[in-house]
Amino acid sequence: MFTGIVEELGEITAVETLDDACRFRLRGPVVTQGAKHGDSIAVNGVCLTVVDHEGDEFTADVMAETLNRSSLGALKAGSRVNLERPMAVGERLGGHIVQGHVDGTGEILERKPSEHWEIVKISLPADLTRYVVEKGSITVDGISLTVVDAGPDHFTVSLIPTTLDLTTLGHKQPGDPVNLEVDVIAKYVERMLGDRAQGAGR
């Protein structure tokens, strides 16, 4: 489990294309500290498994399902990525519960800078709209953010200078894709209420 608090802005150093997958080599001096084979690291919000680790770099395999559901397929050598290690038991939950299981992708639609923050408008797939509410939580490229405005096909978030400086959202422009993970609690509530309604119908 992750928290959506990005630890560092890493870099893709190599991409190896396979038949139905690809292998990334990534540089991340912070997240590779103590890393070992089989560990999990979130890359732009996608939970990946460390295949091997040498120095400040690690490799991870990405299967076709992940490439199709997320924006990782658009990454290339030199791309910057948000990196986060799983939360250790007993540590503070600084963001919200993030699984690293991307629900879909959105697109940066608009950026409105101001003196102390920036409003970013992001498109929202129709099947995710019901999970996004004003002042609720959403994960964008692995970043835990609060929804400012929730529209029928978009939402907005307000980014502070720290987020702009230390994550991919400081660099992405209109037209760029982002990974989205909605609040898992909302999905569980929907499932439980649906099961209850079906039970009442019987």
TrEMBL record:
Organism superkingdom: Bacteria
Catalytic activity: 2 6,7-dimethyl-8-(1-D-ribityl)lumazine + H(+) = 5-amino-6-(D-ribitylamino)uracil + riboflavin
Pfam families named in the record: Lum_binding
GO biological process, one term: riboflavin biosynthetic process
GO MF: riboflavin synthase activity
Function: Catalyzes the dismutation of two molecules of 6,7-dimethyl-8-ribityllumazine, resulting in the formation of riboflavin and 5-amino-6-(D-ribitylamino)uracil.
PANTHER family noted in UniProt: RIBOFLAVIN SYNTHASE, RIBOFLAVIN SYNTHASE ALPHA CHAIN
This protein's name: Riboflavin synthase
Organism: Streptomyces sp. SID7499
